[in-house]
Specification:
- 2 copies of one chain form a homodimer.
- Chain A is of the alpha/beta class and 271 residues long.
- Chain A folds into 2 domains: 68 residues, Orthogonal Bundle (Arc Repressor Mutant, subunit A); 196 residues, Rossmann fold, CATH 3.40.50.2020.
- The first copy, chain A, is 35% helix and 27% strand.
- The first copy, chain A, has 8 helices and 12 strands.
- In chain A, the strands form 4 sheets. In chain A, strands 6-5-9-10-11-12 form a 6-stranded mixed sheet, with helices on both faces.
- The relative contact order of chain A is 0.12.
- The model of chain A has no long low-confidence stretch (mean pLDDT 93).
Amino acid sequence: MKRSDRLIGMTHYVLEHPLTLISLPFFAERYDAAKSSISEDLTIMDKMLREEGLGFLESVSGAAGGVKYIPTIDSKESEAFINTLSQRLEDPERILPGGYLFMSDVLGEPDTVRMIGRLFASQFYSLNVDAIVTVATKGIPIAYAVASFLNVPVVIVRRDPKITEGSTVSINYVSGSSRKIQTMVLTKRSLKQGSTVCIIDDFMKAGGTIDGMKSLLKEFDAHVAGIGVLAEAEDEEDERVVDDYTSLLKISNVDVKNERITIDKGNYFSN
Amino acid sequence: MKRSDRLIGMTHYVLEHPLTLISLPFFAERYDAAKSSISEDLTIMDKMLREEGLGFLESVSGAAGGVKYIPTIDSKESEAFINTLSQRLEDPERILPGGYLFMSDVLGEPDTVRMIGRLFASQFYSLNVDAIVTVATKGIPIAYAVASFLNVPVVIVRRDPKITEGSTVSINYVSGSSRKIQTMVLTKRSLKQGSTVCIIDDFMKAGGTIDGMKSLLKEFDAHVAGIGVLAEAEDEEDERVVDDYTSLLKISNVDVKNERITIDKGNYFSN
């Protein structure tokens, strides 16, 4: 097989297996090629991925060595993406009664969601998390997008227990903005005790929901290594109960009467 | 730029843009190459994608021509995947009270969900759908996986209206298996009138939920071109209210007392 053919197959394989150790012998056998040729292929691939701003191949040396694809995104492309997204979301027609923002259409686009996932993966890949935790419903697509780049499972916290889940652990928490008592449940067998996790959600006001998730995760002895939200409501900063998080967007000055809203880049871009 | 470098970048681009028309001049400009070279690259890529069972490049001729990546999967690989999945799900420990099956862990794995999406995309790509419709919560990850391969948005039907959604259309329907009256809502602005859609869900018993979605979609003048479910409960066949659907798995003989369950391949594999 020619190098050009092999590189197409190898590129597909590498992209579909991020953060997974792939050994040279694996590719050598798959494409009936010498290990030295595969090694050269991977050098070419690493260079090209870097040039295109798509991440890089990390070499792992030793007998059980190989390469790992680290999916990152360069800052130019991530800023361009978030600027376009901000502009789309600033449309006054998106403002709903109560000062909420209609984002379901944007969160329904698989390529937009995938890019959001890529941004968070770029930030969190070094944390070696065991799972991504989110809460039903809106955070789910983003959580899967992050998880697909970090090669870990998604664990979904629910507001209500379901019969198809088996035994659960539940907690009550106080919603930060509405001050209402709410319940959250997580199926016992969905998360191993002592896991390192990353919390992902679409939106954070005062942070009560995320704080509730943290409490629930304590019951599983989980270590929350990172928190990522697509958008934070800046006006709620004073009351915020969660402080160490990454946001891609900051929503402020929601003015329902005059149909105005301000959307800025989140703290992801200021680090 | 060398062909080998270019092919890595082009492979990434093509894989991330399934069912999207990509023109030769686009790649020629992006990689500063002659159109004839790009054309050769695409011929190599098409051959390799077919060899690896990953789909093919469809040529679109004419002035506005180019190629479209059609993501399919060969039957050998899809059968191997579904056999492994069946074996995992047949584990008696998955049987829950009421005859339900615990599948959340499997549906939490991004690569498993992506493969499920690939199988459905392989079946539905020629239907030219405008959107994938699913119902919260468990169908959501599968719907996004299908949508990412078909390059269309996901529209989520909810059981309860949410304030962050705006005005909605709702219907009442009778759940096929429990015979209870339930409600479903869809935000008005989430789906254009007259769309062609594909319904995706994780599980179908008698089909009441999917039948309810069909009624709700009628209010949007939508045409349901395809229905895909990961698993169907075969024991409910007599009472089934939906007949034209594609299933990947068939669950039968759920015996809670003796902790036994039978899982077979769905009708996807008999067509």
